[in-house]
Amino acid sequence: MRPGVLTDDPVDGTVELTVGDVVGPDVPRFDEVARDDVAAVLAALLDRARTAGRIYEVVGGETPIEQALDA
Description:
With about 70 residues, the protein is of the alpha/beta class.
């Protein structure tokens, strides 16, 4: 899990999620994301198959977490 800049903002349940075996933008992302949204993504990943060895980059966004994980 590679979260953006963590904030104490209230959870809103939406994120922008990038998933892959290798995720490495040329420029690091400094977009903000609520700590509670990161925790919600982590909790949702626990019940999913094929997450080991994957890289999840998460920042604040407009996509509901479950939908972002299914994309």
